[in-house]
């Protein structure tokens, strides 16, 4: 940036941003935890205490991860505005943000995860959580891509800010940090774009610094950053807490749920057997046929034709042509 441009910006701007400014910090007032604790202490016999306790535990784990992230941001010395726990809506879209970070060069949407176990990302970008005992894997499951979740949040924020003429050329970036220091993240086979936007908590500040250097020619004035940040805060739309989901289901509903679960269990085993057999015939590892995340989509979406099968992440023309009909027969019989 030219010296003249810097002087003009300085004259135009009456606010300064030399380090981290925390405009919203809700770490000590989690509405979700507060409401779940009320239900936990309730004597209402219609409440599902196991579900409540499970969600309360997960909420507290998540909040502890966000506290670790806030510590890193506060001590980063980077000029930025930090918004924690934000909710916005536009049209039919709603998103909750762990962190929105506004810098002179970009806006960063940060999703925070704190899993038990290690994270492995495949060459197709599928995420798995792996728990080991020594060198032996004792548990492995596919998980919904947190990066895909962050990208969805980014797109909603982009739509929201543009609808109110708050950004023009400003780039909105999405990323994920894993806040459990003992997590191992295996990105050996991960696509390049996944590797670049995922980090452990000690890599968060270096990631922000890298993006600042990449976009060094951008320079949004502090006054505009504060204007955008305050607009976001003043136009939040928080969804009210619903107790309904924590009520014990009636007996007929339990019967239906049980049948669905049993049906899913049977289908899952059939799909795993099919994958194992096909992998053995082709000399591949099982996840090359389809990943656990793809298998989970088969179970939830139950595709009934090749067009629907093509929409499942991890399936493409080649796989559908090779064994799509066999898959559909398994899923729908």
TrEMBL record:
> Boundaries of each HRDC domain copy?
261-333
Q: Which domain of life is it from?
A: Bacteria
Species for this entry: Paenisporosarcina quisquiliarum
NERD domain location is: 61-180
> Per UniProt, what is one Pfam family of this protein?
HRDC
User: GO terms for molecular function, please?
Assistant: nucleic acid binding; nucleotide binding
UniProt name for this protein: HRDC domain-containing protein
């Amino acid at each position: 940036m030219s010296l003249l441009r810097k002087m003009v910006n300085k004259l135009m701007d009456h606010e300064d941003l030399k380090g981290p400014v925390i405009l919203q910090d809700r770490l000590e007032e989690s509405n979700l935890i507060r409401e779940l604790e009320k239900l936990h202490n309730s004597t209402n016999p219609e409440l599902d205490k196991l579900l409540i306790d499970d969600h309360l535990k997960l909420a507290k784990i998540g909040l502890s991860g966000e506290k670790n992230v806030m510590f890193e941001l506060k001590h980063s010395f980077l000029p930025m505005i930090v918004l924690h726990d934000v909710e916005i809506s536009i049209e039919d879209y709603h998103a909750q943000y762990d962190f929105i970070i506004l810098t002179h060069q970009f806006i960063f949407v940060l999703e925070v995860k704190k899993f038990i176990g290690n994270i492995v990302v495949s060459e197709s970008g599928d995420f798995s959580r792996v728990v080991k005992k020594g060198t032996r894997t004792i548990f492995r499951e596919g998980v919904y891509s947190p990066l895909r979740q962050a990208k969805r949040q980014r797109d909603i924020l982009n739509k929201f800010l543009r609808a109110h003429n708050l950004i023009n050329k400003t780039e909105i970036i999405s990323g994920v940090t894993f806040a459990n220091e003992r997590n191992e993240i295996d990105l050996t086979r991960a696509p390049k774009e996944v590797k670049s936007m995922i980090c452990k908590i000690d890599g968060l500040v270096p990631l922000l610094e890298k993006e600042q250097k990449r976009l060094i020619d951008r320079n949004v004035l502090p006054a505009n950053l504060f204007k955008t940040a305050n607009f976001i805060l003043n136009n939040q739309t928080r969804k009210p807490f619903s107790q309904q989901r924590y009520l014990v289901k009636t007996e007929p509903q339990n019967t239906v749920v049980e049948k669905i679960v049993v049906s899913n269990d049977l289908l899952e085993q059939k799909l795993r057997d099919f994958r194992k057999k096909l992998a053995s015939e082709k000399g591949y590892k099982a996840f090359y046929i389809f990943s656990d995340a793809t298998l989970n989509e088969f179970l939830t979406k139950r595709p009934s034709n090749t067009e629907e099968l093509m929409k499942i992440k991890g399936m493409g023309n080649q796989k559908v042509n090779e064994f799509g009909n066999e898959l559909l027969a398994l899923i729908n019989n």
